[in-house]
């Protein structure tokens, strides 16, 4: 007989994803077992399987949800009001804030994507490319002096992404520099480089 869904099924799934992301970030996906995930979530292995078919499904769902949210927020910021520089600043700020609020997911995305099967990995990579396209367009729009050659536009975009994505190694959002302040520093430095 199939187990019925509890009233708070979606909240429990979100909680499992959050706790599992923390465990994957700390131990690495390959070093984390279903038993480890069940223990971290304070549930039995059987109950964990009620919410997710496999460890890989947990990984796929957490990364898909993370990138769906980021993509939607970055699109809103990139299409918002103001000139190219204002939209660039808003988009960088949104990306920095999302990363600061989801450090575990950022670590898992950067280190464990290769553990997904080809189909799931392909969906994630497509979303990453969509994010890169948003940022590439903004970088191009901000380059009013046409200093960036078309052959290096993606390189310039990836430099920007590196300034944002790899902060998890050293940046503490609870430290003396807020996420908004860090985003402003990134935007100032990047736009200043284009202006000079």
Polypeptide structure, described:
With 196 residues, the protein is mostly helical. It has a single domain (56-195), classed as Tetracycline Repressor, domain 2, CATH 1.10.357. It has helices at residues 9-27, 34-40, 45-51, 55-78, 84-101, 103-112, 118-142, 153-165, 179-195. Helix 4 runs parallel beside helix 7. It starts with 8 loop residues before the first helix and ends with a helix.
Core attributes:
196 residues; mainly alpha; Tetracycline Repressor, domain 2; 9 helices
Strand content: under 5%
List low-confidence stretches. Answer: none
Please give the alpha-carbon distance between the first and last residues: 69 Å
Mean pLDDT: 94
Major beta-sheet overview:
none
CATH class: Mainly Alpha
Shape: elongated
Under the CATH scheme, which architecture would be assigned? Orthogonal Bundle
Write the element-wise H/E pattern from the N-terminal end onward.
HHHHHHHHH
- In CATH, the homologous superfamily goes by the name Tetracycline Repressor, domain 2
Put simply, the count of helices is 9
Task: Give the beta-strand count.
Answer: 0
Class computed from helices, strands and strand pairing: mainly alpha
Domain module tally = 1
Calculate Rg over CA atoms: 19 Å
